[in-house]
Design a protein that fits this description.
By secondary structure, the protein is of the alpha+beta class. Helix content is about 25%, strand content about 35%. The protein is built from two helices and six strands, in the order βαββαβββ. Strand 4 and strand 5 form a beta hairpin.
Length: about 80
């Protein structure tokens, strides 16, 4: 079963492809999406990465949380449901 991760504090220059490339070195990535503003189309500074397994998600979280990506330290943790 896949696990969705929240990725915060993203640099404005990071796009979906860069996000996927960053995470795929730590496991199988199902999807990677940087959230953009509807009006301007610019990044809102966060995104979501869906990892194929909970084990891959844990490995990626341990490796990437508080790590540097394009000049900024990113935040990585398991995404919470919108209930």
């Amino acid at each position: 079963m896949s696990t969705k991760l929240f990725v915060g504090s993203l640099p404005w220059s990071v796009d979906d492809q860069k996000l996927m490339e960053t995470f795929k070195t730590h496991g199988n990535v199902v999807s990677a999406k940087v959230i953009t503003d509807r009006t301007t189309g610019r990044s809102r500074g966060f995104g979501f990465v869906e990892m194929e397994s909970a084990d891959d998600a844990q490995k990626a979280t341990r490796a990437l949380n508080d790590s540097e990506l394009s000049g900024r330290n990113i935040v990585v943790n398991e995404a919470k449901s919108r209930d």
